[in-house]
Design a protein that fits this description.
Layout: H1 4-22, H2 24-28, H3 39-47, E1 53-55, E2 67-71, E3 74-78, E4 82-88, E5 93-95, E6 98-100, E7 103-110, E8 118-121, E9 129-131, E10 140-143, E11 145-146, E12 148-155, E13 158-164, E14 170-176, E15 187-190, E16 196-197, E17 203-206, E18 211-214, E19 218-223, E20 226-230, E21 233-237, E22 240-244, E23 255-258, E24 260-261
Antiparallel strand pairs: 1-2, 1-11, 2-3, 3-4, 4-7, 5-6, 7-15, 8-12, 9-10, 12-13, 13-14, 14-23, 14-24, 15-22, 16-17, 17-18, 19-20, 19-23, 21-22
Amino acid sequence: MMNSSLLKKVKTICLTAVALVTLHVVAFGQVKESVNLPIAKDLIKQTARRIEFIENKGQWNKGDIRFCGYSSIGQMAVRSNELTFVTTNPNEVITEGKTTHEIHKWAMRFQGNNPNYKVEHGSAFETKRNYMVGEASTYATNVMAYDELKLINIYNNIDLRVYSQPNGDMEMDWIVKPGGNYNDIDVAFIGTDKIEKNRDGSLKIPLEFKNINFNIPESYQIQNGIKVQKKFNFQIVDNHVKLVTTDKIDNTLPLIIDPVLN
């Protein structure tokens, strides 16, 4: 039986290898009709469905990637003005004797946002990663991963908190601070067909292999110590999504708008 120290080292090596392979597509922006997917991806699903937001310390030197992770809907990258996703077809494709999976790259782009937003991170996971493949200029060691991110002032006086549900679904909290205007939030869905509303008001985002739902947000303000619900709906214009309400909003108090992507 392995002692705890050796077991921890083995775990670190395995997770490092998994991270190197599974995040390659997102990190380097490869948009191919098919890509070889190793067993490592399945290991991630089996060991931890919770999203880990991995910092970029130079191991991904193309584009403006700030963090990468893996959610229930695929690989993702946090960039200056968007969240980029690579969703994989669960059905295998056999080409010239090789097993591949098709992928679909798409994005949620924050129109008119502040690209120089600051990031506050949540708690760090114990395991650190090392990236030692390719050019030496992209080597990175002791790379940290966090359980959530807060993008500070991604719009004027508006923060975006991104975190994971236990099943790997990505949750987003728009935090509109006093002086902020929720009308500034404008999310364009890039690389998808026309999005539409389901009967319950949630969004249906059509991808090549499946549909993804963007659930109606729970929205509220804390007024006199009491949580007061505010009803928001999605408004769609040319694949741009905005948030609308007929409820009265107190602009002197923070407003939380909490949709879930699954």
